[in-house]
Amino acid sequence: MAPPASELKAMTDAFEGIDRLAEGAPRTEGAPNFRRLPGFPLFGTGQTSVEGFEKCLEPVLKKYGDEKHIFWVNLRQEPVVYVNGKPYTARDPAKINFHLEINNPEECTELENNFAEEIRKRGEDFKYFKDQFGEHPEERATNEELTEKLAGVTTIGEIYAAIKDKVPKLEPIRIPMNQEKAPEEANFDQIVAMLKDTTASCPVIFNCQAGISRTTTAIVCGALVKELQLTRELDRMRGIVPDDILDALKKKKLGLPGIDIEVQEDRNAMQMGEFEVIKELLEAFPEAKVAKAQVDKLIDLAAPPPRGTGVENIRECIIESKMTFDVSSDDWQAYLKSKIMNNIERYFYLIVFAMYIREVGPKGFPQTFKQYMDDHSGLRTMIEEGRGKLEWERKIPDEKLSELKDLLSAPEFKANMPKIIKRIYELSWDMFGDLPRGHHKNNSMHKLASKTMIEILPQNLADFIETKCGALAGTPDFFDVIGQVSWYEPTA
After folding, report:
1. 3-state class of 148 per DSSP?
2. Which of 58, 354, 375, 473 is the most buried (most CB within 10 A)?
3. Distance from C-alpha of 52 to C-alpha of 210, rounded to nearest angstrom
4. Per the confidence metrics, is the pTM higher than 0.90?
């Protein structure tokens, strides 16, 4: 439960490094990461400035001004207020680095209104904390309270109302999503409810804090519904437009890589989301193969160049986090493990949502996604039990270490060191052969080499290294251990 407004602290929404758009990509002042999903009336942005709202609407109105509705979807669980024209979030002072999590849109709006009034009551000196980029929540704030003169406080509701006076067709909606976790089943239903009775060209702008993770996820969900609508609209043209032209249009607009469009590139299996739980899903539900291809196509389209125009690949980020996990300290690994499992769950749910759209959508959505999941409750069990099925630690098999242990236990072990070093790196290379080349792979190999070197030390060398490098449980660096081993002299 959120603290009362009187206890909340303000934190800037924008942070250094928030801009993730590719170099040379068009940028919109006051709207971080504003972009369009190619071929779709779907847009994404970070939380805009007051002026940024209308700047985002300009290209939307220019291209889709004849549409009946323009939806602006706020994906934030956390309350946001505008002070001096810039967005700030309300934070619990006991957890200043973490967003508040409020699933009820009305409650979130009420707290925003109360917090805005509280800021006004606090006088002309507006105090706030500055957010900063950090993957781990503990790195996301300077924890130094700053002050500036208060010129004005505005709520999101007031901003929407002012824009609606100019653009009556604007329909603001709040669909609260958790920044760190997979969307709730209700979130998928809210997106369907918003779009199911609209046209394929009805535009939607999604926003979260930075316009990255939650926004990209919602864009992919929206695109799944849009593809269904486009299929319907093309099918209505049969008998008017020649079938071969319609089929060519469908292939161009809706074709799936690996199914009815050739896959142009060879990517790593983990980059393509072939996790154990996903393979279980494909085996249990044959229709999941087409659904996965559809989701993968849209994820790539919503990703950074060269495949898309976005700011994050929400499938490939899983393996990127896993490579970081492999070389991280234990406390950092705990956070990354949770993040990786949540992102696998998100990817799983996107595929299942695509299955739902393909099965239930053509019938007019007589069943909600939650009801679909109730009818297929085994899917919830599958992801709950399977989200952690990943090789969390790579270890060289014991049978391959026996020779190394013998070489290091020999009386003249120093003469064997070149062979030991070469063999450890060969084994480490083999263990990470599935990873793409780059610093993550190099760092992963180096850390495994360090662990392996510690593991094969005979007791006399292990005791000596511990006195020189500290506790072996902390895994001293490979080169530090090698250096100390070379200096070791047995006591008489």
Report:
1. strand
2. 354
3. 13
4. no
